[in-house]
Amino acid sequence: MKEVLNYLERHQTRFWEELSEFVAIPSVSAQSEHREDMKRASDWLVRHCRQLGLTTEKHETPGNPVVVATTRQDGNAARPHYLVYGHYDVQPAEPFELWDADKQPFQPTVVGDSLYGRGTSDNKGQHFVHLKAIEAYLKTETPLPCDVTFLLEGEEEVGSEHLGDFLARERESLAAEGVVISDNGMPSLRHPALTYGLRGVAACEVKVHGPNRDLHSGIYGGAIDNPAMVLCQLLGSLRGPDGKVTVKGFYDDVRELTDYERQELARFPETDASLRRQLGVRQLFGELEYNSVEQRVARPTLEINGLTSGYQGEGSKTIIPAHASAKVTCRLVPDQKPRQVLQAVKRHLSGRCPRSAKIEFEAGHAGEAYLNSPESPSAEAALRALKRAFGHQPILMREGGSIPIVNDFKRVLNIDTLLLGLGLPDDNVHSPNEKVSLTALRKGMVMSAWLWQELGSL
Ligand code: BES
Ligand code: ZN
Question: I need a labelling partner for 173 at 20 to 30 A (CA). Which of 78, 124, 298, 412 fits?
Answer without folding.
Answer: 124
